[in-house]
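Appendix C reproduces, verbatim, an entry submitted by the partner laboratory led by Prof. M.T., so that reviewers can inspect both the input and the predicted structure.
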Amino acid sequence: MNILITAGGTSEPVDNVRSITNTGTGRLGSLIAEAFAEQGDQVYYLCDPRAVRPQAQGIEIQTARSTTGVLEAMTALLQHHTIDAIIHSMAVSDYRPQGVCTVDALAAALQPLLAEDRPLPEALLEALSRAAGARAGKISSQLDHPLVLLEKTPKILPLLRDLAPNAVLVGFKLLSGVSHEELMGVAKALLQKNRCDFVLANDSTQIEGDNHLGYLLRADGQVSSYPTKQAIAAGIAAAVKERRTRT
């Protein structure tokens, strides 16, 4: 099988030396890649440059930093290779900087909008959009209270079923400090909405090093639980292989 695995986190630039990122390390993704490689599968591993990389032989590694870069790299891989399964474990940023401004610039942009008697939330958002222009180079460290305007990043998981209609699709859902019922409910909704075959649901409060409680939900409603990253990796590899064998 040809397997595409994403791992690690993404990094969204604020300027040419600063970025907004997350705590995704790629450790679980690297173990999943090794589990598939041990089965004799061809693995394409797409990660951010800081991510943990698998050590098994024969794994093709590519890197991408931003959400846009990840989407472009995945699209190219899917266009050039017949991919049998996609394991999208990467922690993709939900937001990216749209621009940066100062308090003075915001006040200057906001004043004429308020004079038009515009509703404050509407006026504030428009003023931020006007004031927070894209900045070339490095933002000065002398600025007091710089304001960073964020915008949503494109969601990658909803695009994958159309990009690879015949691939086994594994999504991931991480929540923090929620009940088991809520975690399962959110993961099930994610699975159905994005037409996944599996979703790995986990809670950040139940992750410590390689101790990692994860629940693998199947489209037929079955759920398997695993206590460690290594067990999750082996479980996903086995489940995908079984799913491909039945199709």
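The chain has a mean pLDDT of 92. Additional entries are available on request from the coordinating office.
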